[in-house]
Structure formats: C-alpha cells, structure tokens
Amino acid sequence: TEAVFLSADLYTTFIFFEIMSLCSYVWVAQDEKAGSLRAGATYLAVAVIGGMVMLMGIFLLYHKTGTLMIDQLPADAALWPAALCMFVGFAGKAGAYPIHIWLPKAHPVAPAPASALLSGILTKTGIFGVLVISCQILLHDATWGAIILVVGMITMFLGALLAVFSIDFKRTLACSSMSQIGFILVGLSMQCLLGHHNALAVDGTIL
To answer: What share of the chain is helix, strand, coil (3-state, %, to 5)?
Structure first.
C-alpha cells in the first residue's frame, strides 16, 4: 500500500495497485469457507476487471501525453476517455457506487483486523487515484466535478441506508466505510466545481 502512495508515475502505481489487490484477496478468503470464497471471488473479479480497465486508461493517457509521471501530467479536457477508464479501476477499489458490491460481502467474512485494513487503507488507495485524476488531469473541470458529485452523493446515502438496515456489525462497518467514501468524493467534486476558490473543499475532503 505504501508503494502506491509513494509512486511517482501511474504505471508504477498500477503495478503495486494490482499486487495489493491479489494480496488482499487472502484477507477475505483466508478461512476458505464457502461464504469467504464467494466474497473473495467477487472482490477479485471487481479488482481484476477494474484493473484492466484502468490499464486501458493508462495506455490512452500515455498515447495522448507521452508521459505517466504524475507531476508532469497536463490538465487537458482531451484526456477524458483515459480519465474515465482509470476512474473505473480506482472507484472499484474505493468501494464507490455502482462498483461497491464487493465491500458489504467482504467485510462480514473477513477477520476483524482484515476488516480494519479494508476500511482504513485499501479503500483509500482508490481515493488516491481519484485525487490524481481530479487534481491533476481534469483540474477545475466542472463536468467532471458534477459526475464525481453524483457518484459521491449516491455512495454516501446508499452506504448510510445499507448500514441502518444491517444486523451484522462488520457489514455495518463496511456500509459505513462506503458512506464515508461518498463524503470524500463529494469533497473532491467541490475541488473541481469551486475552481480556484477550492481551499474549503480541500479541507472538507481531508476531514
């Protein structure tokens, strides 16, 4: 996970992102019971499919810009297709709607320490990727901000609703985590929508 956050370019980010996905599968399926294996299969399917779509976005990005260095990526509306592909991969790991299906399934079957890691670390790697897209590639893009806002609001309210009707503590934790991801996405969207006056949105996202 640390390697994802310390990566200087998106290809390195992708490599460690996928290594993290394969390693974290063990957290979910480690007791090898039927429910754990089903939840693990769902998680792995979301991770692999999302990873492949994200890789396609990375290829598109490199084709358009000639670089994958995060600090050298231009803010360019022509990069929308690449940004959307990468968003699918990152949002899937974050547990954002509608690719949240693995989160409520994985938490109840995973041991408590694994649930804490899934909520506290794994989902935040997905948010890191969305941050790169929103604050580097599509900076101050109002349309992108509106899309993130809609996804964030649905994730926020759906996660809270599922948590209210949950009777399993770890499932409640999963749904609460999903809701908090929605809050973060709403803050991210405000960074795009408020333009240069986005300091308050940054503070809200971090909070």
So the answer is: 80, 0, 20
8 Å CB contact between 114 and 122: no
Res 150: pLDDT: 92
SS3 73: coil
Pick 23 or 181 by higher pLDDT. 181
Query: Quick one: which of 114, 117, 94 has its CA closest to 179?
Result: 94
For 114-131, what is each residue's pLDDT tens digit?
Answer: 777 777 777 888 888 888
Cα separation values, 127 from 9, 74, 132, 172, 185, Å: 16, 20, 9, 21, 8
pLDDT at 1: 67
pLDDT exceeds cutoff 80 at 96: yes
Q: How far apart are CA 25 and CA 79, in angstroms?
A: 32
CA-based nearest residue to 124, from 166, 168, 80, 183: 183
| SS3 state of residue 93 | helix
Question: How far is residue 79's CA from residue 73's CA, in Å, rounded to a whole number?
Answer: 10
Q: CA 193, 195, 197, 203: dihedral to nearest 10 degrees?
A: 60
